[in-house]
């Protein structure tokens, strides 16, 4: 059963949150967010009304894509919203970022017309399928490349070493390929570069530690962050969200269900 986050200043952020390697999905009551920028492409979609987005100028949109790195703020209080953030360093994220930059601030409600707005509690598997459907509606397909033994063993190495400092060179030695070869294979099959995957694995470990009862300081240590401040800076830089929101509510989507 999903857990819920405590509301933050600025709104009623206490819906469902899902985290995978490269993606965060929020479904629930909207709120407001002060101006920020992050490394993810962001979809904001209001169920029944427009959302106010500041993206260079004030926009009123039912659904809008915000390019990675663009300063923005938004207000969606009083309605149900979907917020979908996709890491821009991977192939699919880069494609979505290009789509966002091709027509900054464009209304996308018609593109999503055939996609059901989520109105019920989702399981992580359902959330993974919904994310894939949303990306397809926006013209971005998930890679169908299965994980090879090289990528699977590299992923296993990262998960074992995450409390320390996982290194590409060490992962390459473990799987028996050169670092250059591992970089190419890993990025193609997993969907994001090795170093970004390490960061996402730290985030997922922090989620798991919080669910096990750890406070922010212990969760940061379990995930290999230097301290809770490092964890907080990372969350805000990547998503414009505080870890107190994400860690308390997030469920993990396994990479095998939502990679690429």
Observed structural traits:
single chain, disordered N terminus, 10 helices, Arc Repressor Mutant, subunit A, four-stranded antiparallel beta sheet, alpha+beta, 10 strands, disordered C terminus, six-stranded mixed beta sheet, Jelly Rolls, 260 residues
Protein topology:
Elements: E1 16-20, E2 23-29, E3 32-36, E4 40-46, E5 51-55, E6 57-61, E7 63-66, E8 72-75, E9 80-87, H1 91-102, H2 124-137, H3 149-161, H4 168-175, H5 179-190, H6 194-211, H7 216-222, H8 228-239, H9 243-249, E10 250-252, H10 255-258
Helix pairs in contact: 3-4, 4-5, 6-7
Rg over alpha carbons: 18 Å
- Summing up helix and strand content along with how strands pair, one would put the structural category as alpha+beta
CATH topology of the largest domain: Jelly Rolls
Hey, roughly how much beta strand do the residues contain?
A: 15-25%
Number of domains: 2
Anisotropy-based shape: globular
State the helical fraction. Answer: 40-55%
According to DSSP, the number of beta strands is 10
Query: What's the helix count?
Result: 10
- Level-2 CATH architecture of the largest domain: Sandwich
User: How do the helices and strands follow one another from N- to C-terminus?
Assistant: EEEEEEEEEHHHHHHHHHEH
Taking all residues together, what is the mean pLDDT?
A: 86
**Spans with pLDDT under 50 lasting ≥5 residues?**
1-11, 255-260
Strand order of the largest sheet: 7-4-9-2-1-10
Biggest sheet descriptor: 6 strands, mixed
**CATH superfamily grouping of the largest domain:** Jelly Rolls
CATH class value of the largest domain: Mainly Beta
Distance between the termini: 26 Å
